[in-house]
Every structure is written in structure tokens, then in C-alpha cells.
Amino acid sequence: MGLLDKLHNVADTRKALLPPGIDPFNVVIDEIYTSTEASLGGRRVLLAGTNNYLGLTFDQQCIDASREAILREGTGTTGSRMANGTYAGHRDLEQELAHFYGCSSAIVFSTGFVTNLGIISTLAGPGDVIVLDADSHASIYDACKMSGAEMIRFRHNNLGDLEKKLQRLGERSAKTLIIVEGIYSMLGDCAPLAEIAALKKKYGAWLLVDEAHSMGVLGNRGRGMAEAAGVEQDVDFIVGTFSKSLGAIGGFCVSNHPELDLVRYVCRSYVFTASPSPATIASVREALRVVQANPQLRTKLWANATQLYQGLKQLGFELGPDLSPIVAIRIPTREKTLLAWKALLDCGIYVNLVFPPAAPAGMSLLRCSVSAAHTVEEIDRILQAFTGIKHLLTDGDGAAAAS
Ligand SMILES: Cc1ncc(COP(=O)(O)O)c(C=O)c1O
Predict the structure, then answer these.
(1) pTM, whole model, 2 decimals?
(2) Is the separation of the CB atoms in 262 and 71 below 8 Å?
């Protein structure tokens, strides 16, 4: 006891939250058939809660490249990027990423999470300041803590609050790193990046954008929010992940600052963890080619997002503020969210259930996400299933609880 008390508290909270027999946070996918279909709890379900925005997890070119890499180079590198874990493929992927973004340097990491941990805690240190959006991902918060820099939060997407905080810093803004995301992962809302970049320039600060959910999704070439907002030249560092649009695992940072290459020598999550496997690198390289050669994937993704967002809105659900491939449905209470999640699953639709602290501002959410691989009929099936749970959201007066 003692040491483990905190885990017993977790068990108590779980028990209070979840009725017996339902554990939405411990779902096992028994079999995966395609990028949008799987078997779960003995039934076939449509996956409407993944980050597989372009549906590339089953792309034949990526699978073939991955298979060939395993046969050629083995199953793993067994070493960090700094030691024996940099193969020609890792170096080539870095060059291809730099070329894709039109940047001079790129670094590849083992996951998106450790990219943020490593890059942010290397760029900012004691005596520096990080000004971050309050709804930032856990990896960004953890990185800020690790950095030893002073951490100042501004209210989510609130330009006035950001400016107030930058103003107060005075000359210290030259040692200040602003961190925002392109599309926020839970509500699917977008950063006002053109205005944020203007503030960064006005106050002489630095800007890092996490494009985890916007790479492959936004911009003419799929480079993300910085491209879509026309401010790539004003963004100092872009970080992203291979685990969403690119359908694999890993992370990266690109920049035009030549100092990025020096990060390799001091960044602990680059130096002290094994590098991505040859199969992963090969599939990511192929996925990057697919993204560039197939802009129609993005067109289809946005058509699907529009169909789902508008359809749910017409049904009376309360949604996140912006149309994007992440469609978050706010449900009034935790109990109802849980019941709605289970009812959707019983209809053969899997969505993500999100409670605080993962959901912002104490909300309970059903998080749907669409993929370019969904068909119009599949989006219709999702909408039909949501029609079936509207009654769960009714207030006492029978009106849909979308207020
Ligand atoms: C904004 C953001 N950054 C970083 C990450 C971490 O990426 P990964 O899961 O690839 O480690 C995530 C994951 O969801 C994310 O949403």
C-alpha cells in the first residue's frame, strides 16, 4: 500500500464512472478488415473514430513497401538514431520531408509524442518562456514541464489573451516560444494561425505549430494549417506525426533554422530511444508519395467531413465550432455520453468516447472522425445510428439537448 494508493483511486473513479460490463477505454479490436471496418466484441463495426484521415493503413503501395523493407532490412533497428539506428531510409525520409515542406532541415523521431517532448524541451530551457494554447495536447504540456522554461497558457484560440500575455513579456518575447496546433484533436477546431503568426512577428517571438491532425488534411499540397493560412514563412518549427494521415507511427520536425540539425546531439528523446523500424519508415515514405500524388484523397475527406458535420447539425446535435474531419458531439452528461456510445456500438458504429481531462472545458464528447476511405453510404449509416440515439439526449421537455 502507500505507493499504490493512487492506482486504487483510479479504480474507484472507474467504478463510479463506468457501469459493469462497459469499458470504452479498454476496447480491443479483435480483427481489422480495412481502414474503416473491424470486428469488436464479436460484431462487425464501422470505424468512425480513428485518425486514419486518408485511409492509408491498408494502402497497397504502403503495404508492399513495408513488406519489402522487412525482407531487406529486418524487423527492427535495435538502436537509437544516434547510434546504430539511422539507416539510409531514415536519412532519405528526412530529405523527403524537408523537400515536401520546402524546408532546409527535417528530423524523424520514433513517435509524435516523443517528437514534442524532445523538440520543445530542447528548444526552450530555464530562462526561456513557452506561451501555449490551453487546449494543447498532453505531449506539449509534458514537454513544457520537462523544459524548465516558464510556462504561460493563453485561453484556447483567444488572440486577445495571447497578445496580452506577449505584451507583458516585454523584451523576454525574444526568448519566447509560442506553441499551437493546426487542428485541435478533440473538438476539431482550427487555430487562427494567420493572426497568431502576425502576433509572433509583432512581438518578436518564435512559433511552433503541431500539425498532427492537419498534415495531409489542410493546404493545397497537404502540408497543413501553416500552408492553408499562407504563413509557412512565419512558422519557425512544424512538428507532426506519422500516426494519423500517413497511417503508420513516428514523428518529425521541419524548419528552415539550420540549428535544427544540432538538436540531434542533445535531444534526449532522439538519442535515448530506438529508431522507427525499416517497415515503418518504408511505409511512411510511400504514404508521403501517395499524399502528394493524390490530392483527390483530401477532396474526398472534406466531402465526407461536410456530409457528417452538416447531417449531425441538421439532427440537432451540438458540434465543435469548425467543420473538419474531426466531428465532436457534445452530450450533456457523462452518463448519457456513455449510454450513447454503447448504443452506437450496438448499431455497429465505433466512435471515441472522451471525458475530461482529455476533453477540454469539462465536456463529455463523442468524437467522430471521418476518413477519405468512408463511402457516402457509410457516412449515411453513421447518421442513421445517431438518429437512433437522439432520444437519449432529450431534456425533460422532450427537446433535443443541443443547447
Ligand atoms: C496534437 C498532437 N500532438 C502529438 C500527438 C502524439 O502523436 P503520436 O500518437 O503519433 O505519438 C498527438 C496524438 O494524438 C496529437 O493529437
Answers:
(1) 0.95
(2) no
